[in-house]
């Protein structure tokens, strides 16, 4: 797709000494292997091309913005979106060019990121970055183990890179905009100046699962010495994979209100179902009042509230996702 260029508000018109690359962080290879083996014998539907992170007009204020594109794959509600941000001190293309340019030292390189989410308010959240206190291509391997919240700056020699990792839990469908700001101090033998630029990336977060639920009543069971009949219900749910990728359901669980318990009527640890795009899995739970429940009363809306249904899955590349429904329940049936 075409990219729109943004006017620069930076009075300095020279090219920047620092370049920025934004790369989607892949999941662990071990997880990818487990997800793939579970459906090797199944024919796979053709995969449609996915769109990367594209720069787009946004209300973010910026001193300088430039167009860019980075590979992202698909992004779905319930997944954890993670990117590696790389600020590179680009060396001169040749020694002759380097000799003709003034010597520059790049100090105090800093990366910041924000995420604009969809919705009526269009909220902007400042993102926490992780990485080493001095994370460049020349750092020793022992430093790699010291991963902390990345708020410090770094000095970069030509060819070195400052890396930061940003993560964000995707909760809403629609357009998301990742804004990355890079600032640094550029020093020469006679002067110095602070320079800043920003890049804006757009990606679309899509729905991953469609959940349809139905609740019905079952015959109750005697409650013990008090003679009260403990009510029972059956909760059914259809889980439809509306994503473009194959997913494996890892767990489906109920988080119930007090005074309730449930029996899981679904698969065991060795039988986790695999859903291709468009396929549906049906799950079932039997919900029952406990002896200590004391009887559940309808709420203000006339419903008996059971709790929340949570669904966890793993994508074919090992990426995990989780989403939960609103509070489920039903209206009492008159005898």
From TrEMBL:
It comes from the Eukaryota. Residues 7-16 have a biased composition (Basic and acidic residues). InterPro entries: TRAPPC13, TRAPPC13_N. Residues 56-73, 133-152 have a biased composition (Low complexity). Residues 58-205 form the Trafficking protein particle complex subunit 13 N-terminal domain. It holds the Pfam family TRAPPC13_N. GO terms for cellular component: TRAPPIII protein complex. Residues 1-73, 116-152 are annotated as: Disordered. PANTHER family: TRAFFICKING PROTEIN PARTICLE COMPLEX SUBUNIT 13 (PTHR13134). This is Trafficking protein particle complex subunit 13 N-terminal domain-containing protein. It comes from Verticillium alfalfae (strain VaMs.102 / ATCC MYA-4576 / FGSC 10136).
